[in-house]
Amino acid sequence: MRAGITVHKDYTISEIDPRLYGSFIEHMGRAVYTGIYEPDHPTADENGMRDDVKALVRELDVPVVRYPGGNFVSAYNWEDGIGPKEERPVRLDLAWHTSESNQVGIHEFSKWCDDVGTEMMLAINLGTRGINEARNFLEYVNHPGGSAWSDLRRENGREEPWNVKLWCLGNEMDGPWQTGHKTAEEYGRLAYETAKAMRQFDKDLELVVCGSSSSFMQTYPEWEATVLDHTYDAVDYISLHMYFENHEKDTAGYLAKSKVLANYIDTVAGVIAYVKSKKRSKKDVYISFDEWNVWYHSKKRDEATLAGKEGWPFAPPLLEDDYNFEDVLQVGCILNTFINRADVVKIGCLAQLVNVIAPIMTEPGGAAWRQTIFYPYYFASRYGRGTALKLALDCPGYTTEDIGEVPYVDASAVHNAEDGTISFFLVNRHQSEAAEIDLALEGFDADTILDDKVIAHSDVDITNTASAPDAVKPEDAADAALGGKGLTASIAPLSYRFVRIKLN
Ligand code: AHR
To answer: Which residues span the domain enclosing 128?
Structure first.
């Protein structure tokens, strides 16, 4: 199969906000406890945080981490996680039917963020709580001192405010499963008044209002229209979530699903434009895609655990998807979709980061390793910064009943003018044919190929485990070549490819 791709230096989509490559840590399962925090672990630092996990997070160069939930946040009291650890209360977490020890709170998490070189994106509880608790939390986190909450922060050991700019106004408030679920009208009003109060403290905050939990929600996309009708001029982003499944073991259908994602983004971009016009507003609202991933491998196991609802365990294994090779391709296509819509999607959070549907897995007291999906996220986060380029793609495709036609080759391209490189992220969805790529680089003067990496495997179900952590990993491809008008490369069937070129 031949595939032609043309990029031109001046045909750009948008500058990419580096926060497109963010992630998420929720107080659930083993994300925090025995994930990032395990005081008895051989690699634990003086704060009880695992150094082996920190090293892997640093590798990913994660720009922002959303915290502390998720469904968890909708019944969370942030005050439970401050002050002397031995005095912190144990609470029942209604979302995941577990016990929360509160041994990690905002102080411990922010220190961890500093250590791994990331920023905090904080979510407030608009399920069981409201404006007052949100403004108290904001004062605790961002006010220098001289007020009750800011002085309490200082007493608790943090002199300087954290100055967190990015705040989520609740989580998935459209979901009937959410503690304190609301209608779009109820939530829109509350979100607006909360945003107003938060801006009375600091008008320059970046605020994220809840959109739909997926494009399969009954209330989508009316939810977005109603919520934005209430909040448009008070917020900066609307949050979207989506998780991908392949219960049917239908590789072709599964890999076509990034088109559903693209349609979702297009629709919400349309709703944003509609409300903007309706309000005669001059400001823009963008999308924060702050939960996305593959999530289905662990569902049966978790249904059994959660259906029993026996007891309230501390940090039980939950949502521990063992990712396979096929998921590398899916995550590669999802990231391409975000890059190709970088004009409207500014923030993205791979959900989640450690143990819970995560690129990094740990064993309590034992190893930490990279899941298969670590790698497409790694390449996009490290090399997908700069300007997203438009692609003219000329390539055959296939049709699925539900989704329609998708091209066999999925691609995105990012020009980094600062370091003089251009990076290509490619997935071949074809199950038996290689894609012979002819890539025209218009307006660029290519010098050398810096990286040519491939992720491929004959078994789509293969996973990385503690005993075989490198079953799936990038290898040197080394068949990409420069010449004529650009680049040629042969992309193996069902493979992920990353090519980076140095420009003159
Ligand atoms: O990421 C796991 C869960 O998925 C989050 O708690 C919730 O927001 C979503 O439904």
So the answer is: 17-383
